[in-house]
Amino acid sequence: MYFQSTRPMMYQDLIKEMKAYEKGFRENHFTEDSLSFILDSYYPEKEEGREVLTFIGPKDLGYLCMDKEESDKILERKSMHRHNFYELMYVADGRLYQNIENTRHLYPKGSCCLMNMNIRHLEEFDEYCRVIFLEFTQEYILNLLQILYLIFDYPYKHYTFKYFEV
């Protein structure tokens, strides 16, 4: 496994996570970041660099590269999970299946799915794919709505940008 991060302690946290995954994939996922971006690239034919995760968040930037053995260990123990944030998944290339509340869905290239909080689901990687995950909290959405409210001065301006009004 190769790991690079802008946060030195992130490596220690990741090692703990990986050991926990080897025992069994956790059902509940939590985030401390209000917004994060993850690019997951899965190459089933490769021995080295089989799965590459690139992550960008307010506190960190980095990537994780797993070989076939490490990736297989995680995929074998993966089970349905849920999280305390919304997840927008976009399939940039390839395809993958996603099991949502025990119903299996196929997502080909160009498709997306917005997952509500606390919905049990499982991404199933079995062939080449590149998937973008945008994870955001309810707090992030509420802050964004407050900003939009201030910009548009709703309901008084009715969707005109108050600083560039003609």
Description:
By secondary structure, this protein is an alpha+beta fold. It has 3 helices and 11 strands. Strands 1, 3, 4, 5, 7, 8, 9, 10 and 11 form a 9-stranded antiparallel beta sheet that branches. The protein has a two-stranded parallel ribbon with strand order 2-6. The radius of gyration is 19 Å and the shape is globular. The N and C termini lie far apart (57 Å).
Shape: globular
- The count of strands amounts to 11
Alpha-carbon distance between the termini? 57 Å
Uncertain regions spanning at least 5 consecutive residues: 160-166
- In N-to-C order, the SSE pattern is EHEEEEHEEEEEEH
Radius of gyration computed on alpha carbons: 19 Å
Structural class: alpha+beta
Q: Beta-sheet strand percentage? A: 35-45%
Helix run count: 3
Biggest beta-sheet profile: 9 strands, antiparallel
Share of helical residues: 10-25%
Mean pLDDT: 80
Keywords:
single chain; 166 residues; nine-stranded antiparallel sheet; two-stranded parallel sheet; 3 helices; 25% helix; globular
